[in-house]
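> run fold H(+)/Pi cotransporter
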Amino acid sequence: MAGDQMHVLSALDSAKTQWYHFTAIVIAGMGFFTDAYDLFCISLVTKLIGRVYYTADGASKPGSLPPNVSAAVNGVAFVGTLTGQLFFGWLGDRVGRKSVYGMTLLLMIICSVASGLSFGDTPTSVMATLCFFRFWLGFGIGGDYPLSATIMSDATIMSEYANKRTRGAFIAAVFAMQGFGILAGGAVAIGITAIFRSRFPAPPFAADPAASTPPQADYVWRLILMFGALPAALTFYWRMRMPETARYTAIVAKNAERAAADMSKVLQVKITAEQAEMASPVDKPFTSKPFGLFSGEFARRHGFHLLGTTSTWLLLDIAYYSQNLFQKDIFSAIGWIPEAKTMSALDELYHIARAQTLIALCGTVPGYWFTVALIDVVGRFKIQAAGFFMMTAFMLALAVPYDHWTAAGNQIGFVVLYALTFFFANFGPNATTFIVPAEIYPARLRATCHGISAASGKVGAIVGSFGFLYLAQSPDPAKAAAHGYPPGIGVRNSLFALAGCSLLGFLLTFLVPEPKGKSLEEMSRENEVGQP
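> ok
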């Protein structure tokens, strides 16, 4: 038996990295591309929606979304995402990763299109319809997080001893597609806006309030939201052709014959059902007895791990989503984006999209790919700890001399430091909080635990999207009331709060183990003998 097992491992080892792994990265990664596009493109168009639907006749400044509407439009997708992560993570461990994978993508396609078709007789009905479909869009996106991570974790480790050295890079490459999704959101907004600006030129609001928002501007935000359905639709066919992960089939479904067939197809080596059974760590004398999520055995083995993965993801997303969703407001506050009344509605969208695309290009995207290149060299723990630490440092560098950065001529320095916080978020905890939960939990609970960790992160995103919107308002009641908000603590103090979240994330990182160079069974401890 030992010889047969070594034969299996030798066959798997000789397979090394296969073309299938890169195919899986693209297929799973396009889901994350779509996720990021759909979640963040809304921040580009909220000011335009405010102008289209909430500009009052005779007003001295362009219309904007009321506080409660703005919070709902920005945050409702994250409520859906949180729900979807818990539900689809649980469902993926019950019926299989593949069975649920296509369902999430189909939901995203339908709701992306429906979001752009949010019509109504009044602004309130349009916003209500938009929020309804964005909730269900978020629900589908939520399923993509645990399933994509688990599929890549299971798939890249089928060649156990060969690919455990590159597993982190494969999963990170899937997640790095988020960066291109954010970048695509800005690029699509710039392209569509440029076309409409050239076809329907409009004067600044200060020159002609009524003409500054042409009727055709209502189509612009709808087209930007609907574009998210395109990459999802292109991916759907290939996602349905992916086999179920062999680890789920062998360990959870206990179908060694099916697992052997899938492994043979994927790795291009001949593997029999008997060999797959012997390669599986289930029901062998050295294997622990199955235990549930709420069992004492799980708490003993993974209780602190779950606390670490949930808390660090929560804290990261409070800071990350606050910065991402409201960077246009921060850039306006420091004067990097011109005052709204000096531009037409489409000019304002163009400037916002250009600013956010520049940040994505210089900070967000490079950070993701630094993680891909170095995660299996440096390790998850060091990247996450260093990322949280540097985020704290740069946020303090923005907050302490905030008055200096808002002075004329100093905005570029602020933008550079702001971009560096995004760089170290992505070359840091934004990537590792996604990767580690896919590696350290048992196969039968892997998607569930990843879903719980990711849902905790989305609680942070909800706190960031709803809380930062109010906190960042001026502490001067008159200035805050002018925008329809109660007084807040201001942008400077909000940056101090985000720095505090990052510092706490750094400390809680010490609860998370280092999976670099270890197999999934070593990390999940599935080969240990159960405790009596």
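The chain has one domain: 18-242+295-524.
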